[in-house]
């Protein structure tokens, strides 16, 4: 068994690895991450996860519900550390898995992956407590600086394969499964369907001169060969401006926080010099900090820093970039996930019973692989949008979305706040 | 789009309670609110509730004879938060942020729904609609009696709301209650620390002497600029970050800005 496999075993048991090994791990991780672009390109199938916040036992529950690495392809949208009691174990395990299976797990940066925030919200203190010095905290912070800022998921299927226990008879005729929410036992809690009538007659109303008929019932093995214009993760693109290429199902952009008024195309994210502490302003800050809100256009947070963005902004951004969905984390939601703006954006939250007291459930989002054989279809993103500036309602089809909702793990009680408060003689 | 919904029925959890000497004390602790109740609360309040909103939680004291009672809940506390934006604070790096923003996005000027996002409240509890009002007093809560190690028959700690101020500190409203054979003490504490800006503590204490039916309500508000507190601590050997997270210790050094005491004696 290699050292790395051994470290993974040890960390899975919630036992830390020696400082020297952490140093080596962080060094290897940095070498790996430096090769990744600001926006990593990920092929479906993939399971998208939100905030973890050092809740190690719940991360184990997440793997139980979603499958293990490398069997399942994972994308974590940041905020691995702070708040919970096991930031070190959680982050180091994810990092080990990243180094061991670089193509099966993607880590992007959250606003908590920062020196300043971790000194206030627990990770720094935990490193001092568990390792006796700030060395490990420093190694980890160096890794944070190399984490990607976002990811693009390509080749997701527009429809879900019904789960085995979905009563097919309950599915409305002429429709297909669009979203489904399952509990941790795999039972269907909620499903939504969309009409199957997405044939070429639909496409005829499409003013754009793009060809792929949107008939998802098309026979597999169609001619459209994958012809992605350059690997999006590298920024290399064949047509000069395209990068977020779309499949018939639009691509999915994953970021921790949200959009930025400085970023109108995915390519602009690629131009950021990301290898630094999270700044207090600018595009990089916005991607990690901003929130969607029920407003029009852009707004300023009443806190005096930070942006809020409305549904029109998401719609336009998705349209210009050939995206069907923005997946983000960053905000606690009681149900584990929350779609907004007609499904144009979703918040995924993966820390159940947040801070060991909120009683919320968590969720992960599974995007299936487009098995219809078409794969990705090249299209220069942004071109038509920029030239005529008209945002039409011709959206690409959103991917089929399966949410797996889970509760907090029954954890051992070491270091946990007592469930029943201890009576004290407060005054 | 067709939607089918299999709702999960929440566990029917009974509130904790104790009845003693003609008083009934009860508490309820449930998870944070779901999306729909949050939306409803937002509509009723006119402001977005805090990130962690324990809207079903409460602590209540009721007198069995008559109609006196007081309870503490999140909605009523939040209803007292300034909704106009007049007493709005700004995070520490706001100046820096605004300056850089002005250069790049002149068009974006509108502050979305301004309100006091620190959720500062001077909530002192919700009285029963027919309760006799309190009257001002100078009589203090008898601390010595509360320092005695009388057995604690009932104890609970209930969070009403909490917000991380988008990682700029913390704001929290929580209640603690302890019931002894002869008396009870309830402390509702609002604690807000906006890093590098301000620390605020607002305590409401309810004291009930069972034998006499005497109820004393005391409200003490303390606050101080963050930097001043840091300077006070710099001279000590304390672990400053830990100190700044601990409202009990902060309470000992923050200056009082307001204090009000009220009293009431419940008859038969």
TrEMBL record, chain A:
<keyword id="KW-0464">Manganese</keyword>
<dbReference type="Pfam" id="PF00149">
    <property type="entry name" value="Metallophos"/>
</dbReference>
<dbReference type="InterPro" id="IPR047129">
    <property type="entry name" value="PPA2-like"/>
</dbReference>
<keyword id="KW-0479">Metal-binding</keyword>
<dbReference type="GO" id="GO:0046872">
    <property type="term" value="F:metal ion binding"/>
</dbReference>
<feature type="domain" description="Serine/threonine specific protein phosphatases">
    <location>
        <begin position="108"/>
        <end position="113"/>
    </location>
</feature>
<keyword id="KW-0378">Hydrolase</keyword>
<comment type="similarity">
    <text>Belongs to the PPP phosphatase family.</text>
</comment>
<protein>
    <recommendedName>
        <fullName>Serine/threonine-protein phosphatase</fullName>
        <ecNumber>3.1.3.16</ecNumber>
    </recommendedName>
</protein>
<dbReference type="InterPro" id="IPR004843">
    <property type="entry name" value="Calcineurin-like_PHP"/>
</dbReference>
<dbReference type="InterPro" id="IPR006186">
    <property type="entry name" value="Ser/Thr-sp_prot-phosphatase"/>
</dbReference>
<feature type="region of interest" description="Disordered">
    <location>
        <begin position="164"/>
        <end position="246"/>
    </location>
</feature>
<feature type="active site" description="Proton donor/acceptor">
    <location>
        <position position="112"/>
    </location>
</feature>
<dbReference type="GO" id="GO:0004722">
    <property type="term" value="F:protein serine/threonine phosphatase activity"/>
</dbReference>
<feature type="compositionally biased region" description="Polar residues">
    <location>
        <begin position="198"/>
        <end position="210"/>
    </location>
</feature>
<feature type="compositionally biased region" description="Gly residues">
    <location>
        <begin position="232"/>
        <end position="241"/>
    </location>
</feature>
<dbReference type="InterPro" id="IPR029052">
    <property type="entry name" value="Metallo-depent_PP-like"/>
</dbReference>
TrEMBL record, chain B:
<dbReference type="GO" id="GO:0031929">
    <property type="term" value="P:TOR signaling"/>
</dbReference>
<dbReference type="Pfam" id="PF04176">
    <property type="entry name" value="TIP41"/>
</dbReference>
<dbReference type="InterPro" id="IPR007303">
    <property type="entry name" value="TIP41-like"/>
</dbReference>
<protein>
    <submittedName>
        <fullName>TIP41-like protein</fullName>
    </submittedName>
</protein>
<dbReference type="InterPro" id="IPR051330">
    <property type="entry name" value="Phosphatase_reg/MetRdx"/>
</dbReference>
<dbReference type="GO" id="GO:0005829">
    <property type="term" value="C:cytosol"/>
</dbReference>
<comment type="similarity">
    <text>Belongs to the TIP41 family.</text>
</comment>
